[in-house]
């Protein structure tokens, strides 16, 4: 048994995927959609099940606008792999299974006890360009961290955030503001470099990475730690 994930698509194609974590988050997600749609760009939204349950209409607006949605857990708790619960919330509205999953905090060990995460048709997706927009308050800094990222190339997957896992409404609404301000310049800059901005379903993911245990699983349950140890010894 092995757990594999992807950080990029084909390097010989000038395609780049913008991804957004932790939504849906009205009205912030709607602002992101408006920017994407105004430029004819598709994005991929890795949503939280708890927000899908809270704001189903916001989730449906993402889908109706033609963007891709993926599973980002239900509650975004660091050591809880509640992807199956999230899939119920998402699937009830989407009408089909999701094809992409992103481990919250990139804690891949949380996928070990989730049939949804380990399903043969599921692609677990990381990113090779992470501007850390969630930690920045200046739009210019986010633009530069994206466009000048040393890993940016054909096939890159860019990790941005249109929300937060926090139940603090003020933080949830405030945190994405700098990213939203930066987004038009990010899109324009990527297109000026010759990149086509696509949804993950338009990108051929390649070079999967086999996950090996790291320190992030040390606070997991005893059962999960045993699974981590077993997986770490797998070829």
How would you spell out the order of helices and strands? EEHEHHEHEHEHEHHEEH
CATH class call: Alpha Beta
The CATH topology assignment is TIM Barrel
CATH A-level architecture: Alpha-Beta Barrel
What is the strand tally? Answer: 9
| Poorly predicted ranges | none
Report the end-to-end length measured between terminal Cα atoms: 8 Å
Radius of gyration: 17 Å
Helix content: 25-40%
Task: Provide keyphrases for this structure.
single chain, 235 residues, alpha/beta, TIM Barrel, 9 strands
List strands and helices in order, with pairings.
Blueprint: E1 4-5, E2 15-23, H1 28-38, E3 44-47, H2 49-54, H3 56-64, E4 68-71, H4 83-94, E5 100-101, H5 115-118, E6 123-124, H6 139-147, E7 157-161, H7 169-174, H8 177-192, E8 196-197, E9 209-210, H9 222-232
Parallel strand pairs: 2-3, 2-7, 2-8, 3-4, 5-6
Antiparallel strand pairs: 1-9
Brief digest:
This protein is of the alpha/beta class and 235 residues long. The chain has helices at residues 28-38, 49-54, 56-64, 83-94, 115-118, 139-147, 169-174, 177-192, 222-232, and strands at 4-5, 15-23, 44-47, 68-71, 100-101, 123-124, 157-161, 196-197, 209-210.
Describe the structure.
With 235 residues, the chain is an alpha/beta fold. It has a single domain (4-232), classed as Glycoside hydrolase/deacetylase (TIM Barrel, Alpha-Beta Barrel), CATH 3.20.20.370. It has helices spanning 28-38, 49-54, 56-64, 83-94, 115-118, 139-147, 169-174, 177-192, 222-232, and strands at residues 4-5, 15-23, 44-47, 68-71, 100-101, 123-124, 157-161, 196-197, 209-210. The strands form 3 sheets. Strands 2, 3, 4, 7 and 8 form a 5-stranded parallel β-sheet that branches. Strands 1-9 form a two-stranded antiparallel sheet. The longest helix has 16 residues, at 177-192. It is globular and about 50 Å long. The model has no long low-confidence stretch (mean pLDDT 94).
């Amino acid at each position: 048994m092995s757990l594999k994930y992807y950080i990029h698509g084909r390097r010989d194609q000038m395609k780049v995927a913008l991804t957004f974590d932790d939504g849906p988050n009205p009205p912030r997600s709607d602002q992101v959609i408006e920017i994407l749609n105004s430029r004819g760009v598709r994005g991929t939204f890795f949503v939280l099940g708890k927000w899908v349950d809270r704001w189903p209409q916001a989730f449906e607006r993402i889908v109706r606008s033609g963007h891709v949605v993926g599973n980002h857990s239900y509650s975004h708790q660091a050591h809880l792999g509640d992807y199956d619960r999230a899939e119920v919330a998402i699937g009830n509205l989407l009408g089909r299974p999701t094809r992409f999953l992103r481990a919250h905090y990139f804690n891949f060990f949380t996928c070990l006890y989730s049939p949804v995460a380990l399903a043969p048709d599921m692609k677990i997706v990381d990113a090779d360009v992470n501007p850390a927009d969630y930690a920045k308050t200046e739009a210019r800094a986010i633009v530069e961290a994206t466009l000048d990222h040393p890993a940016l190339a054909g096939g890159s997957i860019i990790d941005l955030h249109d929300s937060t896992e926090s139940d603090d409404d003020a933080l949830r609404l405030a945190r994405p503001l700098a990213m939203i301000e930066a987004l038009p310049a990010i899109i324009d800059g990527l297109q000026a470099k010759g990149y086509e901005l696509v949804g993950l379903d338009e990108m051929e993911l390649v070079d999967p990475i086999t996950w090996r245990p790291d320190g992030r699983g040390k606070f997991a349950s005893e059962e999960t730690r045993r699974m981590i140890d077993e997986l770490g010894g797998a070829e």
